[in-house]
């Protein structure tokens, strides 16, 4: 039997009624002759609640116990989904990550899947089971501890299962009906894309478009998984939603195809550090050892042997970064006059494969922001994206203005 992977996100399983609606969709695919692997998220809001419990109990928590707690939301929905399917006379059972087992690295709260043996589930399909409901977001380390894959990780579970079972398609059911030119929640002119190239989706995801976890797009690209994003509330047809595919399979190629934003950014500046060989390593090694995810980096021109170094990182890692840098200063490995944290910034990016062959995108982006009176604090570019750090209060305005200026509401 061909295998289909169907993943339901938090809003799609937020109530028993929604679980029933999702189960009906699964029933439709079973009736078509598929063996279905259903990946479920926790009910909407549940993971946030569990993270809150952990942080309240233990501010500097043990990451292994964090994973034990926050992975539990998915266990509930997996069992409920299997029960719902059984009530509909669809042979189904639930699997927690460790039962499959979904083998991962030991990087708690940010683990990577290393193996998904298919024997157990395949044997059950052979015995007449039609649906394997798997708790997303979780796995088990070689040490036998429960791990989680980072926020939004159920998308990655889904794509990894699609690759492991050579599934015909991996359908990601969510609360929007596909991938849009930008977040439809902050720009009403956002346009749904019928197709998007893996590379563009990868950039959009890593720049903040949370519709797919970045790692899930990486895996789909590597293992050539046919990946589709669609609404769990809309029509159920083979054409619905957005297909994430190879660049060659896309007819319309815009210079810019999307605008992404990331709200939780912080900008940190080390004022007046000695400009000498090895200074960047002396600053960024302790940050990396402290688990700080540094994103943008800017080093100013040197003035009388001293310079300013600016970098960005997620807002919730500012304390950790400050601690690591203060320790490095105390130990004498670096020396700076001041450390300034600006936690009211956001990152806005434009993405498009067409940028490889077209010039002028950066100039246009900067002009649009300047016309809106928005000051740019940091800039970074790659072959197919340009990102800027701006004051958070202008984030929505910047997204809307860029969406208008690059005419993203119109198809190419
Ligand atoms: P789920 O719980 O189903 O995993 P998420 O909340 O993780 O859903 O992801 C879906 C959300 O992603 C949408 O509600 C939307 O606000 C947001 N989003 C951000 N950028 C985009 C985009 N370019 N296209 C579609 N959705 C986007
Ligand atoms: N429940 C997890 C989260 O909220 C994983 C997921 O939904 O993808 O991050
Ligand atoms: Mg998600």
Task: Give an overview in words.
The mean pLDDT is 95. The longest helix is centred in the N-terminal third of the chain and has 16 residues. β17 and β18 form a beta hairpin. The protein starts with a strand and ends in a 7-residue tail after the last helix. α1 packs across α4, α2 runs antiparallel to α3 and α11 packs across α12. It has 12 helices and 18 strands. The chain folds into 2 domains: 173 residues, Acetylglutamate kinase-like (Carbamate kinase, 3-Layer(aba) Sandwich); 148 residues, VC0802-like (2-Layer Sandwich). It has 412 residues and is α/β, with parallel strands linked by helices. The relative contact order is 0.11. Helices cover 33% and strands 26% of the residues. The strands form 3 sheets. It has an 8-stranded mixed β-sheet, sandwiched between helices. Adenosine-5'-diphosphate binds next to loops.
CATH class of the largest domain: Alpha Beta
Q: In percent, how much strand structure appears in the residues?
A: 25-35%
Superfamily (CATH H level) name of the largest domain: Acetylglutamate kinase-like
Number of strands: 18
Domain tally: 2
Task: Average the pLDDT over all residues and give the rounded result.
Answer: 95
Model regions low in confidence, pLDDT < 50 over at least 5 residues: none
From the coordinates shown, what is the CATH architecture of the largest domain? 3-Layer(aba) Sandwich
- Helices and strands, in N-to-C order? EHEHHHEEEHEEEHEEHHEEEHEEHEHEEH
> Tell me, what's the shape?
globular
CA gyration radius, whole angstroms: 23 Å
Q: What portion of residues is helical?
A: 25-40%
CATH third-level topology of the largest domain:
Carbamate kinase
Total helices: the number is 12
- The assigned structural class equals alpha/beta
Largest sheet: 8 strands, mixed
**Strand line-up of the largest beta sheet:** 3-6-2-1-9-11-12-10
Ligand types: adenosine-5'-diphosphate, aspartic acid, magnesium ion
